[in-house]
Amino acid sequence: MIRIENLEKVYKTEEVETTALNGINLHVKEGEFVSIMGPSGCGKSTLLNVMGLLDKPESGSYKFIDTELLTLNDRERSNFRKRNMGFVFQNFNLIDELTVFENIELPLIYNKIPTAERKKLVNEIIERMNIVNRSGHFPQQLSGGQQQRVAVARALVTKPKLVLADEPTGNLDSSHGNEVMELLCELNETGTTIVMVTHSSHDASFSNRIINLKDGHVISEKINKSRNEELI
Amino acid sequence: MFRLNLKIALRNLWRNRGITAINVGGLAIALAAFILVTMYFTYETSFDKSNPNYKNVYVVGVSYPEFKTNYIAAPFAKAIKQTYPEVESVGLIKEGSFELTIKNGKNTLFTKNILAVDYNAAKILNIQPENGLTKPSGEVERLNYLSKESMQTLFPDKKDNKPEMVGYGASNSGITVVVAGSIRSNEHSNFVFDGISLAAELGEHDNYDMNDYSIFLKLKPNVNVANLEKKITDLYRYELLKNNTSKKSTAELKAISTFLDPLSNLHLRPKAGNDMPYKTLIALSVLGFLILVIACINFTNLSIAQAANRAKEVGVKKVMGAYRSQLTLQFLTEIFIQCFVATILALILAELVLPYFNNLFQVGLSIWQVDSDLIWQLPLILSLITLIAGIYPAMVLSGFKPALVLKGNFSTSKQNSWLRNGLLVFQFCIAVVFIIGLLIINSQLKYMRSQDVGFNSSQVVYIKNLTLFNNPVKFGSVSFNPVRDRLLKIPGIKSATVASFIPGGQNGINSYEVNASKANIDFVNVDFDYFETLDIKLKEGRFFLNTFKTDTINSAIINESAVAKYSIKNPVGQTIRGCGIDYKIVGVIKDFKTQGFESIVQPTIYTIKDPCGSYKTQILLKIEENKMADALAALKAQWPQINPKDGEDFRYEFLDELYGKLFKKQEQLQSVFFAAALLTIFIAILGLFAFAKYITNGRIKEIAVRKILGASDVQIFKLINSSFFIMVLIANVISWPIAYILTKKWLETFAYRIDLPAMPFVSSALITILLTVITVSIQAKKAVKANPVDALKYE
Ligand SMILES: Nc1ncnc2c1ncn2[C@@H]1O[C@H](COP(=O)(O)OP(=O)(O)OP(=O)(O)O)[C@@H](O)[C@H]1O
Ligand SMILES: [Mg+2]
């Protein structure tokens, strides 16, 4: 589904130029769960941002099914993103002024889903995430794990083809972290493609494939046998 | 989407309700000021606009070497009409030259201005009696109309609009006149009157020496005015030459020209006058606008300062596919809503302040009028401030890159700081200029109040009077001597005199000649005891004295300025020639400021006999202070015998109050500047208060860390204050030259003025720095007093 070729990204600041991505090649099949690992500063987040069309690389190609995404203009990128992608962040990034329900509702609004259907979709996902009795709460009133579940719900409510998760368990203890990982697995089983950045090999063990980055290069790739067997 | 955006906005505003209230409140105050100024501006610039001929009406003025005037000879009207086909019609008007008493039984009306107009002028100037404009014809020479209010005073029960008989002057005068009906006097016009005296034609028997009328032209559309102006000048010179009654030389005629002044100029910047009202109006508008800009800057500044709070929201929304334009619109809408609330509050405020405003500017503005221009101006103002205050923050906020802001440690404190600081400095610049301006206006006014004006107007009573006094008596006038004798018998009256003009009013101008040098100078026709009554100082020679027979024939007294003007050496005993008389100069007085402090004392000649002069009607009495009340009571009781023409209508004013009116404009300016300076500094401080609150909130963690590392409270106060202190200092340094130039310009409008003092500059710096330090410290105190452990735990 995703074909990334020779992707290069350079950050220019006044004093230094940092090459965050240095010729990345990456293919992701539909329905795959891919983990990206590597030392701090190797370009994992940058890669994810580029894949999520939040950042523009200097050169390379990024094909989604058959569409080349890097030549799109801002508006087309926005449109593509809201129809096809969902995001989960390490620091949740919920809007503090909106309730749980409203936070989850927001992407549907941007997708111009009618009110009645919106309500239905949000309620469905709230039930699935087991946060029904929290739907009127504000983010500050939830625990970290609950917040991340809301964030996942928000990423899923539009039924995106691709979910991008940047260290989704980074701010959570192991039990809350596991909850989130299980959610992602469930989601993957229903056919959603997932690309996740993580530092934890435990989390990575949930995925089909692990890609190792270093200094903006892909240095190794590992098929997760146990997980793939499990799949079969 | 709108619903959720609104929720986010409202919850955000509520969380920062202190700052929001300051922001919206400050804007409301500034807007109220701006609304008032806008209303006033609209009012002042639309005098006579309701006249359908507004765009085509011009007054014909005459430009002499020394001055310009709209007074011109009546026969010239006819000459213009006969010569130039592009002039559609020509009208004449003449202001009432004295106050008139009109009576109906016990009801008495004192009119100040009965306007004489001819039929054409009434048509051109849209002067419409209630029962229609008709041309006087046949037996009826004049049709007299009184304003509705005047009519009400005389005939309180009158319902119809039928003609009525009234008495003119004292009840024993026996003059009766028919009033043809009532007429609405439009206060919003250059022509306000208590009544109209309508004639078919005016000034038929006048000649070219009698410049008593104003000529109004209605031009056909698309006439080349500059061209016509030239042609009319030629015609005027030709007519003067043809009817040369005062024997002017061709060189003198060459120096005279005419000009056409459009009706739209008359109120604010007549060519025959000065454009001070116009300049004042512009200054006032700029003031109002600046105050509004300052309030908008508060908005911009705080919105940007708070941007960090909204950055995550922007990032998340963009991740979900929001367009930048959607977000821009969202933030603009938020600011619009706040501006809208501010506008409503501003209207309420303006309504509350309006009575004071009306009183100060002597106008009758009102907000709730159906035909008010505010109906279209307000939405315009609202959009304008939304754009000024909102466009920049909206662009900044909607421009955040999601990849950056969602990392979690995003901070805006470094970003745009030069802009925020720049805006803060700008605000304080304006405030400093206003404070300096105010202090300097105060100094000048104090100077004017304390300065010797060269005469003493206190305990001088000015009596309004209809009798024409002249000495020697000429046609229609009587001698003042018997009146003076009777007046001086009243206990307390120290001296009594009569003159053609009083200090504080305009003098007459005529041509006088000394040693073959000719010049137009001011003249005042006086009677004995004039200088003594006003306590004017003698420089050399003597005052007029009863004992000198020649004083009522050809004696003159001139002032120092006249001596200088003609550069006369040893003036006493020399001859000054005017109106066919060789006057002998018997005395020179010291200059005194009849025209206040703005214009330089004019060269002036004082004579008792003057065939070309004006009638002496202005009685002046010097009365002992402690016998004032008794003397006035006695005057009122005896007035019908002393002065039968006025009869029972004894009316007076105190000269010092009259003269004080010359200061009115400056006092008005002082009030306006006081309000403006107060407002700007208040709004700027409000903004600073909210801004400092925001900055210190953002630095709570830093302050906590510093305290743990051993910083003392004083060090932290210094830390927080220092950047604000520097900004205010910079603002002061920038504003000083601006304030210097502006106040210097203003002072130059005075002939008698203070030297530009340095103190206001220092004071303004002290005031603004003190206010800043106090404001910032109040905010800093919270951060300093907080327990550092709590602050860090909170994070
Ligand atoms: N906005 C930016 N400006 C300049 N350099 C940047 C920027 N963002 C990232 N970088 C640099 O690009 C490189 C890759 O950063 P990236 O955030 O992708 O690392 P990462 O692999 O996600 O690290 P971590 O595991 O710590 O999150 C780093 O060297 C970083 O310093
Ligand atoms: Mg990262």
TrEMBL record, chain A:
PROSITE patterns found in the cross-reference section: ABC_TRANSPORTER_1, ABC_TRANSPORTER_2
Transmembrane parts of this sequence: none
Keyword Lipid biosynthesis annotated: no
GO (cellular component) term, any one: membrane protein complex
Coiled-coil parts of chain: none
CDD domains: ABC_MJ0796_LolCDE_FtsE (cd03255)
SMART domains associated with the record: AAA (SM00382)
Keywords attached to this entry: ATP-binding, Nucleotide-binding, Translocase, Transport
Superkingdom as given in the UniProt entry: Bacteria
InterPro entries per record: AAA+_ATPase, ABC_transporter-like_ATP-bd, ABC_transporter-like_CS, MacB-like_ATP-bd, P-loop_NTPase
Keyword ATP-binding annotated: yes
Domain ABC transporter: 2-232
Gene Ontology terms, MF aspect: ATP binding; ATP hydrolysis activity; transmembrane transporter activity
Pfam families per UniProt: ABC_tran
Family according to the record: Belongs to the ABC transporter superfamily. Macrolide exporter (TC 3.A.1.122) family.
Protein name: ABC transporter ATP-binding protein
From TrEMBL, chain B:
Transmembrane residue ranges: 21-43, 281-308, 329-354, 374-397, 418-441, 672-695, 716-738, 758-778
InterPro entries attached to this UniProt entry: ABC3_permease_C (IPR003838), MacB_PCD (IPR025857), Macrolide_Exporter_MacB (IPR050250)
Keyword Cell membrane: yes
Source organism superkingdom: Bacteria
Keywords: Cell membrane, Membrane, Transmembrane, Transmembrane helix
Localization in the cell: Cell membrane
Family matches, as Pfam families: FtsX (PF02687), MacB_PCD (PF12704)
Record membrane topology: Multi-pass membrane protein
A GO cellular component entry from the record: plasma membrane
GO MF, one example: transmembrane transporter activity
Domain ABC3 transporter permease C-terminal: 286-399, 675-788
Domain MacB-like periplasmic core as annotated: residue spans: 20-234, 430-633
Record keyword Membrane present: yes
Family per record: Belongs to the ABC-4 integral membrane protein family.
Name of the featured protein: ABC transporter permease
Annotated organism of origin: Pedobacter frigidisoli
